[in-house]
Design brief:
Butyryl-CoA Dehydrogenase, subunit A, domain 2; 4-stranded antiparallel β-sheet; 8 strands; Butyryl-Coa Dehydrogenase, subunit A, domain 1; about 375 residues; binds flavin-adenine dinucleotide
Length: about 375
């Protein structure tokens, strides 16, 4: 695995300071409270709108759609600061991370003009419609189908584990547009933009371990999707989905979901002057630093159009195990009383990290499946 080592410029350090200051101000004004796993579980449309007003959604996208044509590294800095602050960015996260890049690469001009400016404003949210009750890791076995009718497609079937669909306006949905012929199951799949408020769509919440709504089951009963909502080529859904997964797997969100807990732990141990425990934490920080450099390297290669499937799978598998290890190590080093409504930040972050943690190594592809991708990639390169 060869990844570039990236140095940030003086302007980029300055940009980081600006974002950090903005977030500190917002927090001081009570706009949000820091949470672990805020990128997928901290949905706050008012905050997303504020981020949009700052011009901080879709910052790498072309100016003609409202973007700022910044570099992938500028975006990396921005989202790293959101994650470190535990800011509630979940409402617009999927649209910013993968729907926008997907539409820029495969969408029609009309789709770009319609959706990108709204995403950039922080007022238009997307969900990911891949998993189904009988298809998770083996995604190509999906059975939700779209049949051709005059002017569009009729969709029937269901999706599950769909994060934040109850807040989203649309979902990029993987469907079967050609019946499975019993041989090539990756063929005949397409991506549709489904309006989640359309007639025939039913969304049922599945509560998270915290008791809060997060996932959903989504049922489609003869949902009409017009022809102009097909993304990219008909039958090209598998390749397009794989391209999306590269954006999904390598970002800092696969390393930093429990960073607020790590930061609070360090604060606590410093206050206790617990040098022995701090040395333990130092090894965590060293792992974090290495992972961060890998993740930045992948972002750089991705931005240059390079192939990142294997390094992205590695970063995701090592990164999510790292995120999970923080509450494990924290509980050995200091006394905590984890409760979601605790006064003390350490106890609150601990509860969030424990309850959200099990999902880290499942969402976006399980660790075992990622190992399979790495093994196959390594064999293919030999
Ligand atoms: C927090 C969270 C958010 C999610 N959000 C979304 C979302 O927004 N949209 C969406 O579409 N999905 C979402 N998912 C679903 C997620 O993508 C699936 O749960 C995941 O892909 C695994 O699928 P599965 O649950 O069907 O498990 P299965 O595929 O049934 O796997 C069960 C077990 O078998 C193992 N396994 C399966 N195949 C292999 C293999 N070939 N080799 C070795 N081991 C294997 C797996 O590693 C796992 O341990 C989310 C999941 C979580 C936890």
């Amino acid at each position: 695995m060869k990844l570039p080592v990236v140095q940030f410029t003086e302007e980029q350090h300055q940009f980081r300071a600006t974002v950090r200051q903005f977030l500190q101000q917002q927090q001081a004004q009570g706009t949000y409270t820091t949470k672990c796993d805020s990128w997928l579980s901290g949905s706050n449309p008012a905050f997303s709108k504020r981020i949009g007003e700052q011009g901080w959604i879709g910052i790498t996208w072309p100016k003609k759609y409202g973007g700022a044509e910044c570099s992938a590294l500028d975006r990396y800095i921005l989202i790293e600061e959101f994650l470190a602050a535990g800011a509630p960015v979940a409402a617009h996260w999927i649209a910013d991370r993968q729907t926008g890049p997907l539409l820029l690469r495969y969408g029609t001009e009309e789709q770009k003009q319609t959706f990108l400016p709204e995403i950039i404003k922080g007022t238009c949210y997307f969900a990911i419609g891949l998993s189904e009750p009988n298809s998770g890791s083996d995604l190509a076995s999906i059975s939700t189908r779209a049949e051709k009718v005059a002017g569009g497609w009729l969709v029937n079937g269901s999706k599950t584990w769909t994060s934040n669909a109850h807040d989203a306006h649309y979902m990029i949905t993987l469907v079967r547009t050609e019946p499975f012929d019993g041989t090539a199951k990756h063929k005949g799949l397409s991506q549709l933009i489904i309006d989640l408020h359309a007639e025939g769509v039913t969304i049922k919440p599945i509560r998270y371990l915290t008791g809060k709504p997060h996932f959903n089951e989504i049922f489609f009963d003869n949902v009409f999707v017009p022809d102009n909502r097909v993304v990219g080529g008909l039958g090209n859904g598998w390749e397009q989905g794989l391209a999306e997964l590269a954006f999904e797997r390598s970002g800092p969100e696969r390393i930093l979901s429990t960073l607020p807990l790590l930061q609070e732990l360090i604060k606590e141990l410093k206050a206790q002057q617990n040098e022995v425990a701090l040395q333990e934490v130092a090894s965590l920080v060293a792992r974090l630093w290495s992972l961060r450099n890998l993740s930045i390297g992948v972002a750089q290669v991705l931005a240059q159009g390079g192939e990142v499937a294997v390094p992205a799978a590695l970063v995701k598998s090592i990164g999510t195990k790292f995120e999970q290890s923080i509450p494990e190590i924290a509980r050995l080093l200091t006394a905590t009383f984890p409760r979601l409504d605790a006064e003390r930040a350490l106890d609150r972050y601990m509860a969030e990290a424990i309850l959200h943690g099990p999902g880290f190594t499942i969402r976006g592809g399980t660790t075992e499946v990622l190992y399979g991708i790495v093994a196959k990639g390594v064999v293919a390169n030999e």
